[in-house]
């Protein structure tokens, strides 16, 4: 009980302390023009209100990640709390804030363009591949999981396959209409359902904890040193890939630029980007606690193995809230992946269109990019969920590492405190290299000493290359370089040149 409540309080405190430090370190300019204002196209660049942007960001980044991930992470016991709280404050919140704000300073650019600018042109191709791979995987996951949840609530004749097709139809319509119509109108409603149902489950957990109906686990020395996972899989690095959304997730780096295109003041950045990551951490804390409090480790593992974590979601919702309100809670969970899947496909369309040089200025061009992506995603829905999740998890955290290194280079070139992004980036780099060396989806070396040592050597080599190229770049830059002086939106540059010439 104390760990659960204390963890949530620490997350909130982190927003008001470390979040403020990160904001000051970036050095916002409240009077600066934003892409939403000067590049307005009434499709993707549209000024929207602060609260609307924040809800869109939360629903974009959440999906089933901060629910399914913590449920599976609960198999490690209260250790999950440590990663959620520390990861959210010192890694995930910083990651989301920096990419959102750097994009805001660069015409709403997506991660591949930011990587090209700050890490070099060759990196852009690598980042494009990882970003598109991640988005197609995560968008597919966010079709499969709500389809399973909806199927559990509907008559037997309504199959998962039929629901999947209906979700794709919704995505197709929503992906090709302006962002303020696709998201700005319905997301506040989705957000209200999510917030109310999440608070209801959290409140019932606390109530049952006080009455003794359920025991909410507390962090202890034993829980830090023991690994209770039924399969015996190691805490390091697996927990960082099991719980990604809710602590640190590269998927967020594909979503923040979309909201940077609708933001009208840099002062909103801490609330919209860092704050919504903290909110996602609270969601993760609630669902991790529910999974640990209501089920023992073996029962939880058996439920997940029998299907997906959607089985656990149903059980938790009905046990804590009853049939009526439990159904509403499940609907609150369903809106998360549907909204994130929609934004994932929208980001994927934009990134692919930018990469192949196809402007999205007509319905024909939008459909030419969108429909093939949906076909690929539909084929992927036939793959086993566990395999999809493993590939998604690794691609997700590789993208997070790239995003943190882009942010580190940005801060380094501008003479700011870059350790706030470099330290979590280097740590996750080591974890991702171990993962791909050890896992069957990679080199299948297992989690022995060889994998850990080889990963350390490879990680140090990558870090050395990163810093040596960064140092050389900084020495060659002149004070007027756009890498140091942030690029203003194109129309703003043209306006200023016209004013100077007249």
CATH topology, which one? Amino acid/polyamine transporter I
Total beta strands: 0
Please estimate the helix content: over 70%
Structural class: mainly alpha
N- to C-terminal distance: 67 Å
Large-scale geometry = globular
CATH architecture title: Up-down Bundle
**Residue fraction in strands:** under 5%
Number of helices: 22
Order of SSEs, N→C? HHHHHHHHHHHHHHHHHHHHHH
Major sheet attributes = none
| Radius of gyration from CA coordinates | 22 Å
Number of structurally distinct domains: 1
The CATH class turns out to be: Mainly Alpha
Overall mean confidence score, pLDDT: 88
3D structure, described in words:
The protein has 502 residues and is mostly helical. It has a single domain (1-225, 240-414), classed as Amino acid/polyamine transporter I (Up-down Bundle). It is built from 22 helices and no strands. The radius of gyration is 22 Å and the shape is globular. 51% of the residues are buried. The model has no long low-confidence stretch (mean pLDDT 88). This is CstA N-terminal domain-containing protein. The chain crosses the membrane at residues 80-104, 125-144, 156-177, 189-210, 235-253, 273-295, 318-345, 366-385, 391-412, 419-437, 449-467. Belongs to the peptide transporter carbon starvation (CstA) (TC 2.A.114) family.
